[in-house]
From TrEMBL:
Keyword Oxidoreductase recorded: yes
Organism for this UniProt entry: Streptomyces jeddahensis
Pfam families per the UniProt record, alphabetical: Aldedh
Entry similarity comment: Belongs to the aldehyde dehydrogenase family.
The EC number(s) this enzyme carries: 1.2.1.3
UniProt protein name: Putative aldehyde dehydrogenase AldA
Domain of life: Bacteria
Keyword Cytoplasm: no
């Protein structure tokens, strides 16, 4: 890189777009062209979907055995594998994901469904000592109807994270995909109808207003939301009115801290993966590099070279590394933030021969990876989640300064530290305030490990054995075998 100047029908009646009489347009972000139209679900449609889910829960689903739910989830996993190519194609065209990435996400979704198929049969209670004639125990019971509100960066995968967990523990689900990316979820819900009983899994469509209607439904027992911190606050406020529990996986501005004694080649590759993966549209993106001043110039040059080799292109092209951003607004905002940082003194590093972060290709919403070195700490580039392949860089001289820079954010979703010093590994492993901490690695995520955020990155657990805490409620039970004892 070289330095450059800144540069399916929903339930109920549909709310139709008067201009098209077909509903909300769904775009291909690689071309800007309309793929189809999906009508927003109106208030009566949202209420009808929740009623069906609530009826299904009370009439049969809550009383199904864990073994039965486990078997159905394994069928759902099989369906995901059988339909991998079709679902990946929808993710490619609707979310702009390169083919290999999209197929990998469908495969991960199937693994998640299999994991929760097994977790459905794990013990979740305890038996307590009691006197003669009394049995005392705790258990967990499903919350009822779960609302799953899903973002546009991992439409299918994050929907399955929520759906599989909720179903495993005896809940029914109403899922709302992001308005930009409804197609893979719509197809999953259609196909799942052949596996799951009526009303157990249904979908509603639309933007923020549809999400608000869903949160306000009295029969919704909990809301699992992944998205921006601002939207998460709105979800939390609305659910507070009904004392509904929420799980919020929100934004991030995650640091990657690199010391001079690290494996710099491995660290540089991880940094590039961390800020460009999924074209930077990742909540845990390593979007802030905090690098030892002693190796700053050398390391930034390595990162720039690796990032400059990445190919921006059409998602269907096997050679593409970075597809488009999700919308024209996202690309425009990215350019504005980069230009603002440059105007305030940051060194902007773009791929060789490029003078702008924007990339003109086939009318799509493409951007190049950008590195902003020595960025002002009060700039949007340092403080805000950009959701694009933009890396902000700062350097440090001491361990304390490194930790302070890592913590110079309201978010606390993830952090990564690179060092060969065992004492430093332990210190930073304990001290970093983030829900996910990686040491000499970045981005590891497994269906067996529960994850969550701190600070403005939200609360609640996804995946792993602790997901049960969000989708069930604990009870204490006393059973007297000798009444009146």
């Amino acid at each position: 890189m070289t330095a450059a100047a800144a540069p399916a029908p929903a339930a109920g009646r549909a709310v139709l777009d008067p201009a098209t009489a077909q509903g909300r347009p769904v775009l291909d972000p690689a071309t800007g062209r309309v793929l189809t139209h999906v009508p927003d679900t109106d208030a009566s449609g949202v209420a009808a979907a929740v009623t069906r889910a609530d009826t299904a829960f009370h009439e049969h689903w809550a009383d199904t055995s864990p073994a039965h739910r486990s078997g159905l989830l394994r069928e759902l996993a099989r369906l995901l594998r059988d339909d991998r190519d079709e679902l990946a194609a929808l993710e490619r065209s609707n979310a702009g994901k390169p083919t290999a990435r999209a197929a990998g996400e469908v495969a991960f979704a199937a693994q998640v469904a299999d994991w929760f198929a097994a977790a459905a049969r794990y013990p979740v209670g305890e038996t307590y000592p009691a006197g003669p004639g009394m049995r005392t125990y705790t258990d967990r019971v499903p919350v009822g109807v779960c609302a799953a509100i899903v973002p546009n960066n991992y439409p299918l995968l994050l929907a399955v994270w929520k759906i599989a967990a909720a179903l495993a523990y005896g809940n029914t689900v109403v899922v709302k995909p992001a308005p930009e990316t409804p197609l893979s979820i719509r197809r999953l819900v259609e196909r799942a109808a052949a596996v799951l009983p009526e009303g157990v899994l249904t979908a509603v469509y639309g933007g923020a207003e549809t999400g608000r209607l869903l949160c306000d439904q009295q029969a919704v027992g909990m809301v699992s939301f992944t998205g921006s911190t601002a939207a998460g606050r709105d979800v939390a406020r609305r659910c507070a009115e009904g004392l509904k529990p929420v799980s919020l996986e929100l934004g991030g501005k995650s640091p990657v801290v690199v010391f001079r004694d690290a494996d710099l080649d491995a660290a540089a590759q991880a940094v590039v993966t961390g800020f460009t993966g999924n074209t930077g549209q990742v909540c845990v993106a390593g979007s802030r590099l905090v690098v030892d001043r002693a190796v700053h110039d050398e390391f930034v040059a390595r990162v720039a070279e690796l990032a400059g080799d990445l190919r921006v292109g059409r998602p269907a092209d096997p050679g593409t590394d970075l597809g488009p951003l999700i919308s024209e607004a996202a690309a425009t905002r990215t350019a504005e933030i980069v230009e603002e940082a440059a105007a305030r003194g940051a060194d902007v590093i773009l791929p060789p021969g490029r003078s702008s972060v924007l990339h003109d290709l086939d009318g799509g919403f493409f951007v190049h990876p950008a590195i902003l070195d020595r960025v002002p700490f009060d700039s949007r580039a340092w403080r805000e989640e950009i959701f694009a392949p933009v890396l902000s860089v700062a350097s440090f001289a001491t361990d304390d300064e490194a930790l302070a820079l890592a913590h110079d954010t309201a978010y606390g979703l993830s952090a990564s530290v690179w060092t060969s010093d065992a004492d430093r590994v332990e210190r930073f492993g304990r001290a970093l305030r983030a829900g996910m901490v990686w040491v000499n690695t970045w981005g590891d995520t497994e269906e067996t490990v529960s994850v969550s955020g701190l600070g403005q990155s939200g609360y609640g657990r996804e995946l792993g054995i602790h997901a049960v805490e969000g989708y069930t409620r604990p009870r204490a039970v006393w059973v007297a075998h000798r009444p009146g004892r």
